[in-house]
Write a structure and sequence with these properties.
Blueprint lengths: L1 E6 L2 E8 L8 E7 L9 H12 L3 E5 L16 H16 L4 E9 L1 H12 L6 E5 L5 H6 L2 E2 L2 E2 L8 E3 L6 E3 H7 L4 H5 L6 E6 L7 H8 L5 E6 L10 H15 L4
Helix pairs in contact: 1-8, 2-3
Length: 252
């Protein structure tokens, strides 16, 4: 089911997928894409399909300035994505057929899942950060953004990215430098699964593993010979997530 979820005046495009076999109520996982991504990327659909097969509902959503949602890429910030995620959770919380809510996100979406997990710990039953971009805040404070130098004392109006059609506004840097995910993760006490590729060239696996150790209940799984977006062994990633869901009974 395609739908629009409003966050103030911004319409977020989303797809709600219900399992074929279900009881009166089912658990649901919100899935958030990454930087320059969208809800219809192959790895997100594969994870969503597997969850549906296990009896879970999923809601994949395009965030501010991405995919079919409102806003412009240039004007998106982590604060806006946090607000988007909370608006989506508000919507899901009103659905009478949903029993529990889980939150997953890839890359920048994984970072958002970590941050929002601390804010919404009262109604999120489990987190699943996938290749989470935990280094974005620290990198900006250290004067780097997407591998390019940044003077945080003289922030520019815009910054080029590795993709020609994607230009970041200066507010992205202003916001990112104020965020400390290491504080957020300590506030979430529920079950967490983090999956990361050993050959991820975008986010160093060592940084993610260090962050995972700060959770009270976290399983960290490294996928050999795997990239940031799971280009080589997506089936292995899906299998890891499936095994965790069944072991933790997220699908019941």
């Amino acid at each position: 089911m395609n739908l629009k979820i409003m966050d103030d005046q911004i319409a977020l495009d989303a797809v709600l997928s219900m399992p074929e076999k279900r009881g009166t109520k089912v658990p649901l996982c919100v899935i958030i894409h990454g930087f320059t991504g969208n809800k219809d990327e192959q790895h997100l659909i594969a994870i969503s399909d597997m969850m549906n097969e296990l009896g879970m509902a999923t809601l994949r959503v395009d965030m501010y300035g991405h995919g079919l949602s409102g806003g412009t890429f240039r004007n998106h910030t982590l604060y806006k994505w946090i607000s988007n995620a909370m608006a989506v959770l508000d919507y899901v919380h009103t659905l009478p057929e949903i029993s529990r809510i889980y939150l997953a996100g890839h890359s920048q979406g994984g970072l958002i899942a970590m941050l929002v997990g601390a804010m919404e710990k009262d109604r999120i039953s489990g987190l699943m950060p996938l290749s989470p971009a935990v280094t974005i805040p620290e990198d900006t404070r250290m004067g780097r953004i997407l591998g390019h130098p940044v003077d945080i004392n003289h922030i520019e109006d815009s910054y080029a990215t590795d993709k020609e059609d994607y230009v970041l506004g200066g507010n992205y840097v202003r916001v990112a430098q104020t965020i400390y995910p290491e504080i957020a993760v300590k506030q979430y006490k529920g079950p967490v699964l983090i999956v990361h590729g050993q050959d991820d060239k975008t986010i160093p696996i060592e940084k993610v593993e260090e962050m995972s150790a700060l959770y009270a209940d976290c399983r960290f799984v490294a996928i050999p010979d795997e990239t940031h977006c799971y280009d080589n062994h997506l089936d292995s990633v899906v299998d890891v997530i499936r095994t965790y869901i069944l072991e933790k009974h997220w699908n019941e």
